[in-house]
Amino acid sequence: MKTSEAKKDLAGKNAVELQGELEALLKEQFGLRMQAATQQLTNNNRLRSTRRSIARVRTLLHQKKADRGTKA
Questions:
Q1: Residue 1 has what pLDDT?
Q2: I need a surface site. Which of 2, 19, 28, 66 has the fewest CB within 10 A?
Q3: What is the sign, positive or negative, of the torsion defined by CA atoms of 13, 11, 6, 15?
Q4: Helices 3-11 and 45-71, interaxial angle, to 10°?
Q5: Helix 45-71 crosses helix 15-37 at what angle (to 10 degrees)?
Q6: Do 28 and 13 touch, CB atoms closer than 8 A?
Q7: Burial of 4 (0-12, 13-18, 19+ CB in 10 A)
Q8: 23-65 confidence digits (pLDDT tens)
Q9: pLDDT tier at 72 (50, 70, 90 boundaries)?
């Protein structure tokens, strides 16, 4: 999936779905870090892309939280 498609997909989710996505990404990052530590990780780029996806989700969560604060 391209980055722009991923952004659109994430933007359409609500806060609960984003939180679930964040938890899944954090678990994936942990697994990748363990693979890297034991020299089993073959694609180092996955670690980078996962870290950036986590940042993307956290940014959207904070934006949605800020939007709720201004609307209330």
A1: 60
A2: 2
A3: negative
A4: 30
A5: 160
A6: no
A7: exposed
A8: 999 999 999 999 999 999 999 999 999 999 999 999 999 998 8
A9: low
